[in-house]
Amino acid sequence: MIDLRSDTCSRPTEAMRRAMAEAAVGDDVYSDDPTVRLLEERTAALLGKEDAVYMVTGTMTNQVAIRAHTEPGDAVLFDQNAHVYLLEGGAPASLSGVLPRLLPGVRGIFTPDDVVAALGMPHRFFRLQFRHR
Question: The pTM is what?
Answer without folding.
Answer: 0.71
